[in-house]
Amino acid sequence: MKKLSIIVLTFVALFSMGTTATFAQKKSGRKKPVLTKKPVVPKPSVVAKGPKLYTVEETQRFRVRMESTISSKTAKVGDTFTVRTAEPVYSNTGVVVIPTGSTITGKVDEVKAAAKGGKPGTIDVSFIEVKLPNGMKKAMNGSLTELDTDKAKSDAEGTASGDKMKYRKPIFIGGGATGGAILGGVIGGGTGAVVGGIIGGVGGLITETQTKGEEATVKAGTEFGVVLNQKLLLPKFIEVEDQ
Question: pTM of the full predicted structure?
């Protein structure tokens, strides 16, 4: 009887120990409640303001100077060349946005070599980009124009109208015994009469008695006009200080 009591007490003790361990294990395995954090609201970004832009209106004309020589004998469609501004270009509020000495890139749009029957060579060009002395570049849409026609105008297709003749598109056209280039107006797509001003101090009318017309050769240093077909938006020009 005494042995039976000892066995029962031992069993009860073991059962109690197991129950306590199981309870402790379950208690320790409880997951802590997850605290929900408030969402972080990003602060509105501050957009840096660029420099104030000034407008150079379409039809604005300015004088440029040829940097290299092009000729209707060797030029090809797509060829590029450069000219430099010979005077500052102002916005419509009188601010200098393109200073003297800025580089403008020109592109050959059409070229015809001189041919028999007195047909002169011609070069049709446009102007596609301006680069300022401080390194800033800006795409542009410009055309060749006269400088001595105060009422010359231009549209998006580059067709200029002047005081005497309308719907003429100025081009470089060969002329004169020295083969110099003059600024001519081509009417109706033909080579027509010369209606522009003389460029570079040389030029002349081409006659049918000539065996072959002169090539259009625009030499380095030649000055002519560029007219804007679309307005330009540029900041006030500021020189880059030397470091």
Answer: 0.66
